[in-house]
Design goal:
By secondary structure, the protein is α+β, with helices and mostly antiparallel strands. The protein contains four helices and eight strands. The protein folds into two domains: 2-80, RimP-like superfamily, N-terminal (GMP Synthetase, Chain A, domain 3, 2-Layer Sandwich), CATH 3.30.300; 91-162, SH3 type barrels (Roll), CATH 2.30.30.520.
Length: 170
């Protein structure tokens, strides 16, 4: 149920974000009586994302959700950037962060396992690829991936440093 609702919300908010110059990274819903709707976004052109962007998106998406009313009862909206140890939700994320360490959890086992950790090798429309510690390659179908996230490493921090400096986060 939650995944269906997240997908419906993503379909609802992605066009609004795109019209504003942003890209949707992920919609996640958590909590019980008063669910939290997390919208994770970034600038489509790759420029640094800041607190003002969160506020702008929050006002626009909050108004959209108030009008469309896709959630029963009260809810809370949370807007954030993907951060350094970001989730890998799109093919372009998998390709952009090739060479970095990631952890993946599958909804349905693949090769007898649900959890994988390895170096991102990239992705195509059907599968994401990881180089595992034993040197083998895991090909993970996107539709089976429950969550995938970069692991915070020295290499990832170093690769992210230019963007952090541009955003005033030194």
């Amino acid at each position: 149920m939650t995944l269906d609702l997240e997908n419906r919300l993503a379909a609802l908010v992605a066009p609004r974000l795109a019209a504003m110059g942003y890209e949707l990274v992920r919609v996640a819903i958590s909590g019980g009586n008063r669910p939290v709707v997390q919208i994770m976004a970034e600038w489509a052109d790759g420029r640094p994302f800041g607190l003002d962007d969160c506020e702008t998106i929050s006002h626009a998406i909050g108004a959209l959700l108030d009008v469309e009313d896709p959630l029963p009862g009260p809810w809370t909206l949370e807007v954030s950037s993907p951060g350094i140890d970001r989730p890998l939700t799109r093919v372009k994320d998998w390709n952009r962060f090739a060479g970095h360490l990631a952890r993946v959890e599958l909804a349905v086992p693949e090769a007898g396992r649900r959890r994988f950790e390895g170096i991102v090798l990239g992705a195509d429309e059907e599968t994401a690829r990881l180089r595992l510690a034993d040197g083998s390659e895991a090909r993970l179908p996107h539709e089976k991936i429950r969550r995938a996230k970069l692991v915070l490493t020295e290499a990832l921090i170093a690769a992210s440093a230019p963007a952090l400096r541009e955003n005033g986060a030194e």
